[in-house]
């Protein structure tokens, strides 16, 4: 395996000065509803409002001074964009961010607020990659992939590492899956630090490529894209998929209606702000209660960068 236990431990020490050790919360009402004891790792309280700072910061700090001097660059709809913009500011270098032209304004404004240069493109993978490549060719900036990068995966693994250190002997861990950076990092931390803990992923039905990939044994494209979970629209990479294939217990899909009802539940009962992608694993657990009944489960709440204007649309 390309990422070792020691590399995760080293990454954690490397990024500690730049991140929060986020809180683990519980909620009796949700426990009763789930029929299980749940522990929520609140990355919505993280720097930049999402777990992505872990991977972005680890990748940036891993660069030599020679590689960092021309800046760092990426394509992202939001949270990874913020992570790279924040990391560049910490390193005293330039950030070049390519964002789809329909990215949530709250995320665009945050990226610009960290001092990054934002370039918009059409909302498809080809446009992202071609626009970014032109910027890299022009500037010599170092590309840090949003998820398909060992340095990023290793940084994301520190989230589950913290949770497992604070709440040992979990029966299950649940994380969302989009490109698979957080999920593959979570799987590696469970494997190294708590091998008895099974890891499940939650995925929107409207972006269900990972569950198809797991079934077919090769990276698939979702048959259609239609979900409010905008952070989970990307497909798996050749670095994330083998880890997921080897270690994940299963990938559980949920509808947008189930995501919205779970958002409402978290807002009303936990009194915290989370984004739609964030509650997908909880929605998956509540949909499949029989799998987790009577057990202890950790759930990674991945982020809280939500466009407040969407509330009326979701809860009307």
From TrEMBL:
Keywords: Lyase, Pyridoxal phosphate. Residues 16-303 form the Tryptophan synthase beta chain-like PALP domain. GO terms for molecular function: ATP binding; L-serine ammonia-lyase activity; magnesium ion binding; pyridoxal phosphate binding; serine racemase activity; threonine racemase activity. SUPFAM superfamilies: Tryptophan synthase beta subunit-like PLP-dependent enzymes. The keyword Magnesium does not apply. Coiled coil: none annotated. CDD domains: Thr-dehyd (cd01562). Its cofactor is pyridoxal 5'-phosphate. The keyword Transmembrane does not apply. One of its GO terms (biological process) is D-serine biosynthetic process. Belongs to the serine/threonine dehydratase family. This is Pyridoxal-phosphate dependent enzyme. It comes from Lacibacter sediminis.
């Amino acid at each position: 395996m390309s990422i070792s236990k020691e590399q995760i431990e080293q990454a954690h020490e490397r990024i500690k000065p730049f991140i929060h050790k986020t809180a683990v919360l519980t909620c009796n009402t949700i426990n009763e509803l789930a029929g299980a004891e749940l522990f929520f790792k609140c990355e919505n309280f993280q720097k930049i409002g999402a777990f992505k700072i872990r991977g972005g910061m680890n990748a940036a700090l891993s660069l030599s001074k020679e590689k960092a001097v021309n800046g760092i660059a990426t394509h992202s709809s939001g949270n990874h964009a913020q992570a790279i913009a924040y990391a560049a500011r910490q390193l005293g270098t330039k950030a070049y961010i390519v964002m789809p032209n329909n990215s949530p304004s709250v995320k665009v404004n945050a990226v610009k607020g960290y001092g990054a240069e934002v370039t918009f493109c059409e909302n498809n993978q080809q446009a992202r990659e071609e626009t970014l490549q032109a910027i890299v060719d022009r500037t010599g900036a170092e590309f840090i992939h949003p998820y398909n990068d060992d340095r990023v995966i290793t940084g994301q693994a520190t989230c589950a590492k913290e949770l497992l250190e604070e709440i040992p002997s979990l029966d299950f861990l649940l994380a969302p899956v989009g490109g698979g950076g957080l999920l593959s990092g979570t799987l590696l931390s469970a494997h190294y630090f708590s091998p008895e803990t099974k890891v499940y992923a939650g995925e929107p039905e409207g972006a269900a490529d990972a569950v198809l990939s797991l079934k077919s044994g090769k990276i698939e494209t979702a048959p259609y894209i239609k979900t409010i979970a905008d952070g989970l629209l990307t497909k798996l990479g050749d670095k994330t998929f083998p880890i997921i294939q080897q270690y994940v217990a299963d990938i559980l899909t949920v509808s947008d209606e189930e995501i919205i009802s779970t958002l409402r539940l978290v807002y009303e009962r936990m009194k915290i702000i989370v984004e739609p992608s964030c509650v997908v694993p909880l929605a998956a657990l509540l949909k499949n209660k029989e799998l987790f009944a009577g057990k202890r489960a950790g759930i990674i709440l991945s982020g809280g960068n939500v466009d407040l204007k969407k509330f009326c649309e979701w809860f009307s």
